[in-house]
Amino acid sequence: MRGSHIKSAALPPLNALRTFEAFARHGSMTRAAAELCVTHGAVSRQIAALQASLGVVLVSGPRHALMLTDAGVQLAERLTPAFSSIINAVQTTRQGEAREIEISCLGTFALKWLIPRLPGFLEAHPEVRVRLSESYQSVDYRRDRFDGAIRIIESDELHPRAEATRFMPQYQGPVGAPNLMATLPTLSALSEAPRLRSATFRRAWSAWAELMGLNLPAATVEREFAHNHSMVEAAVSGMGVAIAPWAFVAPDVIAGRLAAPFGFVERPSWFAFLRPEGRRDTAVDAFRDWLVAEGERSPPPPVHSFDKS
Q1: Whole-angstrom Cα distance, residue 198 to residue 147?
Q2: Is residue 48 part of a domain?
Q3: Which of 5, 120, 207, 258 is most exposed by smallest CB count within 10 Å?
Q4: Are residues 150 and 278 both part of a single domain?
Q5: In a shared domain, residues 162 and 276
Q6: Do residue 156 and residue 14 come from a single domain?
Q7: Collapsing DSSP states into helix, strand and coil, what is residue 52?
Q8: Both 208 and 293 in a single domain?
Q9: % of the chain beyond a pLDDT of 70
Q10: Predicted confidence (pLDDT) per residue in 27-72, tens digit
């Protein structure tokens, strides 16, 4: 009886399932092959073998633009969390009581806010190891394998298969080198200064102006940087004025490397911790709770009243 039960529940080859899951997550045979350290052809053969084993078409379309079928999507959505659980179980076995969690994080937030505070978490939880990976992409746990992610969440933003925990409000304001900001006593003067922006949030100036109720004239000079940390350093160097989140610039403002005489205004967005929906993990729970506590302890930004002329 037991043997017949095993036979009826027989699985396709595990390697074929793993290969298909990697392809579905990346949407590319080339990237799946790179992750698995095999050839493009090996990925193609494993997926073909899996389809033959299941008797179901999982991918369709031309070879250079294969897409998941409905059946492929349904299978991938179940395989990704399953393989994540296997990886976590193996890591726990190898490390004894230690548990490594991978946290995807905005790079500037990691540098300016998270990493300076992280020793406190590691001291309180020596059984947990934290590995940080930098990303600005939207989180999609149908595709992503990390244990948690830190993102700035807009009020209308969706992240599939994720549980979101808000842990800190989001404030924005203009910052620049102290000697530059000293020459900009009014908003009119500020609006004429070179504007710095990040490619990850190009509408920072217009969003700030809207919150302030300002009619912002067109910029005379704009300088764009790939990421916020480059933009912040450009502001420190005196290249212009940036509209930046308080969490990204608080250490530099407090240290006097940046000045923020116009203060900061709260945005309708917030910092959130995103974890896979329905996946229980005490290490991730501990990290989430620590983030909430640290968010509550973070110093608030300066808020000043000023003449809009």
Answers
A1: 27
A2: yes
A3: 5
A4: yes
A5: yes
A6: no
A7: helix
A8: no
A9: 91
A10: 888 878 888 888 888 888 888 888 888 888 888 888 777 888 988 8
How many beta carbons lie within 10 A of that of residue 269, not counting itself?
A: 20
Amino acid, single-letter form, for residue 204 = A
Are 282 and 133 within one domain?
yes
Q: Using CA atoms, how far apart are residues 90 and 129, in angstroms rounded to an integer?
A: 15
Instruction: Give the dihedral of Cα atoms 291, 292, 297, 303; nearest 10 deg.
Output: 110
Q: Could you say which DSSP state residue 223 is in?
A: E
Measure CA 49 to chain center: 35
> What is the rounded distance in angstroms from the CA atom of residue 82 to the CA atom of residue 84?
5
Q: How many CA atoms lie less than 13 Å away from 261 in the CB half-sphere?
A: 17
Q: Which domain holds residue 109?
A: 93-167+270-297
Q: How far apart are CA 258 and CA 229, in angstroms?
A: 13
Two tokens at 4?
Answer: 């017949």
User: Would you say 241 and 174 are in contact if contact means Cβ atoms under 8 Å apart?
Assistant: yes
| Residue ranges in 164-261 assigned as alpha helix (H) | 178-181, 187-192, 204-212, 228-236, 246-255
3-state secondary structure of 272: strand
Is position 127 within any domain?
Answer: yes
Kindly state whether residues 193 and 160 are assigned to the same domain: no
| Any domain includes 302 | no
* 3-class secondary structure, 144: coil
Interval 223-282: pLDDT, tens: 999 999 999 999 999 999 999 999 999 999 999 999 999 999 999 999 999 999 888 889
Asked if residues 259 and 175 have their Cβ atoms less than 8 Å apart, the reply is yes
Q: Which residue has the tokens 């999609």?
A: 140
Residues 262 and 274 in one domain: no
Tokens coding 44: 């193609």
Residue 71 token pair: 């059946």
> At CA 99, angle to CA 93 and CA 105, rounded to 5?
140
